[in-house]
Amino acid sequence: MSAPGATSADPVVAYTLRLALAALFAAAAAHKTRDPAGFRATLRDYRVLPDAAVAAAGAGLTLAEAGLAVALLVPALAPAAALLGAGLLALYGAAIAANLARGRRHVACGCLGPSADEPLHAGMLARNAVLVLAALAAAAPAGPRPVGAVDLFTVAAAAATLGLLYLAADGLMASARRTAAS
Protein backbone atom coordinates (compact mmCIF):
# COMPACT_ATOMS: atom_id res chain seq x y z
CA MET A 1 0.00 0.00 0.00
CA SER A 2 1.25 3.49 -0.85
CA ALA A 3 1.37 6.46 1.45
CA PRO A 4 -1.58 8.85 1.18
CA GLY A 5 -1.05 11.21 -1.73
CA ALA A 6 1.72 9.06 -3.24
CA THR A 7 1.49 8.66 -6.97
CA SER A 8 2.04 5.41 -8.77
CA ALA A 9 2.85 4.74 -12.38
CA ASP A 10 1.06 2.31 -14.62
CA PRO A 11 3.11 -0.87 -14.20
CA VAL A 12 3.85 -1.01 -17.94
CA VAL A 13 5.37 2.49 -17.84
CA ALA A 14 7.34 1.79 -14.66
CA TYR A 15 8.62 -1.58 -15.89
CA THR A 16 9.50 -0.18 -19.33
CA LEU A 17 11.56 2.65 -17.87
CA ARG A 18 13.24 0.32 -15.39
CA LEU A 19 14.10 -2.23 -18.08
CA ALA A 20 15.43 0.44 -20.44
CA LEU A 21 17.55 1.99 -17.67
CA ALA A 22 18.78 -1.45 -16.60
CA ALA A 23 19.88 -2.11 -20.17
CA LEU A 24 21.59 1.29 -20.34
CA PHE A 25 23.49 0.76 -17.09
CA ALA A 26 24.40 -2.84 -18.03
CA ALA A 27 25.73 -1.71 -21.40
CA ALA A 28 27.63 1.17 -19.79
CA ALA A 29 29.20 -1.18 -17.23
CA ALA A 30 30.14 -3.62 -20.01
CA HIS A 31 31.63 -0.74 -22.03
CA LYS A 32 33.81 0.24 -19.06
CA THR A 33 34.72 -3.39 -18.29
CA ARG A 34 35.92 -4.02 -21.86
CA ASP A 35 38.45 -1.19 -21.61
CA PRO A 36 39.10 -0.27 -17.97
CA ALA A 37 42.36 1.53 -18.80
CA GLY A 38 40.59 3.60 -21.45
CA PHE A 39 37.83 4.47 -19.00
CA ARG A 40 40.36 5.49 -16.35
CA ALA A 41 42.11 7.70 -18.93
CA THR A 42 38.79 9.36 -19.83
CA LEU A 43 37.92 9.77 -16.16
CA ARG A 44 41.34 11.33 -15.51
CA ASP A 45 40.85 13.69 -18.47
CA TYR A 46 37.67 15.07 -16.89
CA ARG A 47 39.87 16.50 -14.11
CA VAL A 48 37.19 16.31 -11.45
CA LEU A 49 39.08 13.85 -9.23
CA PRO A 50 42.61 13.71 -7.87
CA ASP A 51 44.75 11.32 -9.93
CA ALA A 52 45.13 9.04 -6.90
CA ALA A 53 41.35 8.48 -6.82
CA VAL A 54 40.81 7.72 -10.51
CA ALA A 55 41.43 3.95 -10.38
CA ALA A 56 39.14 3.42 -7.40
CA ALA A 57 36.48 5.71 -8.87
CA GLY A 58 36.65 3.90 -12.20
CA ALA A 59 36.12 0.54 -10.55
CA GLY A 60 33.42 1.95 -8.26
CA LEU A 61 31.47 3.55 -11.09
CA THR A 62 31.62 0.34 -13.12
CA LEU A 63 30.36 -1.69 -10.15
CA ALA A 64 27.69 0.90 -9.39
CA GLU A 65 26.36 0.73 -12.95
CA ALA A 66 26.35 -3.07 -12.91
CA GLY A 67 24.61 -3.10 -9.53
CA LEU A 68 22.00 -0.59 -10.67
CA ALA A 69 21.33 -2.70 -13.77
CA VAL A 70 20.52 -5.69 -11.58
CA ALA A 71 18.66 -3.77 -8.86
CA LEU A 72 16.38 -2.07 -11.42
CA LEU A 73 15.07 -5.53 -12.33
CA VAL A 74 14.21 -6.48 -8.73
CA PRO A 75 10.77 -5.03 -7.92
CA ALA A 76 11.54 -4.37 -4.25
CA LEU A 77 14.80 -2.58 -5.11
CA ALA A 78 13.79 -0.86 -8.35
CA PRO A 79 12.44 2.46 -6.94
CA ALA A 80 15.56 3.05 -4.83
CA ALA A 81 17.81 1.91 -7.70
CA ALA A 82 16.07 4.33 -10.04
CA LEU A 83 16.70 7.20 -7.60
CA LEU A 84 20.35 6.20 -7.26
CA GLY A 85 20.55 5.92 -11.04
CA ALA A 86 19.13 9.43 -11.39
CA GLY A 87 21.80 10.64 -8.98
CA LEU A 88 24.57 8.90 -10.92
CA LEU A 89 23.32 10.32 -14.23
CA ALA A 90 23.12 13.78 -12.64
CA LEU A 91 26.69 13.33 -11.38
CA TYR A 92 27.83 12.50 -14.91
CA GLY A 93 25.95 15.56 -16.17
CA ALA A 94 27.65 17.72 -13.54
CA ALA A 95 31.08 16.46 -14.66
CA ILE A 96 30.22 17.30 -18.28
CA ALA A 97 28.89 20.73 -17.26
CA ALA A 98 32.00 21.48 -15.17
CA ASN A 99 34.25 20.74 -18.12
CA LEU A 100 32.11 22.75 -20.53
CA ALA A 101 32.14 25.68 -18.09
CA ARG A 102 35.94 25.50 -17.97
CA GLY A 103 36.08 25.50 -21.78
CA ARG A 104 37.35 21.92 -21.86
CA ARG A 105 35.29 20.81 -24.86
CA HIS A 106 38.07 18.56 -26.20
CA VAL A 107 37.43 15.94 -23.49
CA ALA A 108 35.92 12.73 -24.90
CA CYS A 109 32.55 11.93 -23.42
CA GLY A 110 33.43 8.35 -22.50
CA CYS A 111 29.71 7.66 -22.69
CA LEU A 112 28.07 4.65 -24.21
CA GLY A 113 27.17 4.75 -27.88
CA PRO A 114 28.26 6.64 -30.98
CA SER A 115 29.28 9.73 -29.01
CA ALA A 116 31.71 7.82 -26.76
CA ASP A 117 34.73 9.44 -28.38
CA GLU A 118 32.99 12.70 -29.24
CA PRO A 119 34.12 15.88 -27.50
CA LEU A 120 31.81 17.28 -24.85
CA HIS A 121 28.93 19.53 -25.95
CA ALA A 122 25.67 20.89 -24.59
CA GLY A 123 23.63 18.15 -26.28
CA MET A 124 25.13 15.68 -23.84
CA LEU A 125 23.75 17.73 -20.97
CA ALA A 126 20.29 17.63 -22.55
CA ARG A 127 20.59 13.86 -23.05
CA ASN A 128 21.58 13.35 -19.42
CA ALA A 129 18.73 15.58 -18.24
CA VAL A 130 16.25 13.39 -20.14
CA LEU A 131 17.82 10.28 -18.64
CA VAL A 132 17.61 11.77 -15.13
CA LEU A 133 13.92 12.54 -15.68
CA ALA A 134 13.32 8.99 -16.94
CA ALA A 135 15.07 7.57 -13.88
CA LEU A 136 13.01 9.76 -11.56
CA ALA A 137 9.82 8.58 -13.31
CA ALA A 138 11.02 4.98 -12.95
CA ALA A 139 11.30 5.52 -9.20
CA ALA A 140 7.54 5.94 -8.89
CA PRO A 141 5.94 2.81 -7.47
CA ALA A 142 4.27 0.60 -10.04
CA GLY A 143 0.50 0.67 -9.87
CA PRO A 144 -1.39 -2.27 -8.45
CA ARG A 145 -3.07 -3.54 -11.63
CA PRO A 146 -2.19 -7.06 -12.78
CA VAL A 147 0.32 -7.41 -15.60
CA GLY A 148 -0.47 -9.89 -18.36
CA ALA A 149 1.42 -11.41 -21.27
CA VAL A 150 0.52 -8.57 -23.62
CA ASP A 151 1.83 -6.09 -21.04
CA LEU A 152 5.12 -7.98 -20.80
CA PHE A 153 5.48 -7.93 -24.59
CA THR A 154 4.71 -4.21 -24.55
CA VAL A 155 7.36 -3.61 -21.87
CA ALA A 156 10.00 -5.51 -23.85
CA ALA A 157 9.13 -3.81 -27.14
CA ALA A 158 8.91 -0.34 -25.60
CA ALA A 159 12.22 -0.75 -23.74
CA ALA A 160 13.90 -1.93 -26.96
CA THR A 161 12.40 1.05 -28.78
CA LEU A 162 13.71 3.44 -26.11
CA GLY A 163 17.15 1.86 -26.45
CA LEU A 164 17.09 2.31 -30.21
CA LEU A 165 15.90 5.91 -29.83
CA TYR A 166 18.79 6.57 -27.43
CA LEU A 167 21.30 5.17 -29.92
CA ALA A 168 19.70 7.05 -32.82
CA ALA A 169 19.71 10.37 -30.96
CA ASP A 170 23.28 9.79 -29.83
CA GLY A 171 24.32 8.91 -33.37
CA LEU A 172 22.61 12.01 -34.74
CA MET A 173 24.42 14.20 -32.21
CA ALA A 174 27.77 12.64 -33.16
CA SER A 175 27.03 12.95 -36.87
CA ALA A 176 25.90 16.58 -36.54
CA ARG A 177 29.13 17.49 -34.75
CA ARG A 178 31.26 15.77 -37.40
CA THR A 179 29.31 17.49 -40.17
CA ALA A 180 29.63 20.88 -38.50
CA ALA A 181 33.38 20.35 -38.05
CA SER A 182 33.95 19.59 -41.75
Would you mind describing this structure in some detail?
- Residues 1-5 have low confidence and may be disordered.
- The N and C termini lie far apart (57 Å).
- The chain has one domain (11-181).
- The chain is globular and about 50 Å long.
- It has helices spanning 11-34, 36-46, 51-71, 78-101, 122-138, 149-181.
- With 182 residues, the chain is mainly α.
Strand and helix layout:
Elements: H1 11-34, H2 36-46, H3 51-71, H4 78-101, H5 122-138, H6 149-181
What's this, in brief?
The chain contains six helices and no strands. It has 182 residues and is mainly α. It has one domain.
| SS-derived structural category | mainly alpha
Radius of gyration based on Cα positions: 17 Å
List segments where confidence is low: pLDDT < 50 over at least 5 consecutive residues: 1-5
Could you say which overall geometry the principal axes of the C-alpha atoms support?
globular
Terminal CA distance: 57 Å
The total of beta strands comes to 0
Estimate the mean pLDDT confidence. 90
Number of DSSP helices? 6
| Range of helix content | over 70%
Largest sheet: none
Strand content: under 5%
**Strand-and-helix sequence, N→C?**
HHHHHH
Q: What count of structural domains? A: 1
Oligomer: single chain
